[in-house]
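Figure 2 data, in text form.
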Amino acid sequence: MLRHFAKLLTRQGFRTMATKETGHLKCATFNILAPCYKVVDKCQWTLWYTKESSHPEHYIPRYEAIMQLLQSKEVDANVVCFQEFWFKDVVFNLFREKLGHRYEIIQLKRPGFKSDGLVMLVDKSYKVKYVENITFNDAAHRVGLLVHMELPSKYEVIVVTSHLAYGNSYWDQYLRLTEAKKLMDAIENYSRRYRNVPVILAGDINGPEDSPVCECIFEEDFESAHKTVHGREPKVTHKDHSENCTAVDFIFYRGSSKCIVKPTDSKLFPTEYGHEEWPAEFTLSDHRLLTAEFDLVEKTTE
């Protein structure tokens, strides 16, 4: 009840309070489909499917096109959250060569035999104050990445990204919800020390808006930037290997007792395509890139 009351006060902006200088942050999230999972040639036996990982002549140009999209004026994000980043030396070196001049590259590989994981690009004009690797210790080998940063405007923000378990079976749904709860616990444990710092959570949660995972996130006072800006979520952000289309990519936000977080824009890229169907021409990934822009406003007493 106390949390709900605090949320109402935050939305009303504490009418007895005024705001001063505004900070700005643009965040992007993109599952870039690791080549070890991308099938380029199917045959009768699933185990013998040809993967893109065997064809650098395919994945190198695809990655270069992804980086071109990121560097475009339309995207131009301060923080970029990647899921399914493939931890192969030639790939990491390529990203460092093309993007390392602007971004600090923070990485977290999934444990065990998994060759992909999470990467967060943070604009070098930002100061990275703390990085926490979140390991769920489950059968899906999933992880989360928490980065506490300070903007040039001196506002601080905690940015978190994750890629939750895939699948539609009862076990998969249970596993995904357990991961979401562990992720929320990790955010709450860290936020207790920094209650004045807002949080942005971006990533592929492998569940739609009405899923138990989203409900778990909303219960912790997070809101979706795209829905706040447009009044709805995109209908399709992902097309899986079975040709199913759904919306599983989100950028959530939560203000703090000292900072109002106001989404000012949110876009699905490439912007020339609509959000209701998967664009057949888009082949950079099986997910689309999602961005959200935020104004950060400090609350002060009048």
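Caption note: The chain has one domain: 23-298.
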